[in-house]
Amino acid sequence: MDYAKLPRAFEGELQITPDEFMLEATRLIVHADKVSFEFSGADGNNGAFLVSGTAQKTGNGTFLAQGVMPNYKTSIACPVGTIEFLVVDIKDDDAGVSEHRCHVEGVWSEPTEQWAFSGELIPFILRK
């Protein structure tokens, strides 16, 4: 990864395993030493939610956010968990054009459940 080109912002849909809810990276900002994220989603239990935080780089090269708490729009149930980014790989095209993608893989863990997530994110576009 070319750290001189950081930070970079991305967005896009994330696939969840097991497929129990929808999750989208509304903004994911990759820095050299951390990943800032804002996810939106919806599950069958409590409905729509937002979750955001900053995952710090660990000694083994992953990025870990602890004390992550989703904010549900229709419920006060807010389990506390962790989000760990296992892979954060920015891929530039061969021509060096600014169109790039970010492949992410990770795990969202709560006290009694765990979900793997992954996706190919595209550059973030600010919408007014």
Molecular structure report:
The protein is globular, with a radius of gyration of 15 Å. A hairpin with a 7-residue loop joins β7 and β8. The termini are far apart. The chain contains no helices and nine strands. With 128 residues, the protein is mostly beta strands.
Provide a brief overview of the structure.
The protein is mainly beta. It has strands at 8-17, 21-30, 34-43, 47-57, 63-68, 71-72, 81-92, 100-109, 114-123.
Major beta sheet, strand line-up: 1-2-3-4-5-7-8-9
Write the element-wise H/E pattern from the N-terminal end onward: EEEEEEEEE
Largest sheet: 8 strands, antiparallel, barrel
Strand-residue proportion: over 45%
Q: What is the helix content?
A: under 10%
Q: What number is the mean pLDDT?
A: 88
DSSP helical segment count: 0
CA-based shape? globular
Write the layout of secondary structure elements.
Layout: E1 8-17, E2 21-30, E3 34-43, E4 47-57, E5 63-68, E6 71-72, E7 81-92, E8 100-109, E9 114-123
Antiparallel strand pairs: 1-2, 1-9, 2-3, 3-4, 4-5, 4-6, 5-7, 7-8, 8-9
List keywords for this structure.
128 residues; mainly beta; 8-stranded antiparallel beta barrel; 9 strands; 63% strand; globular
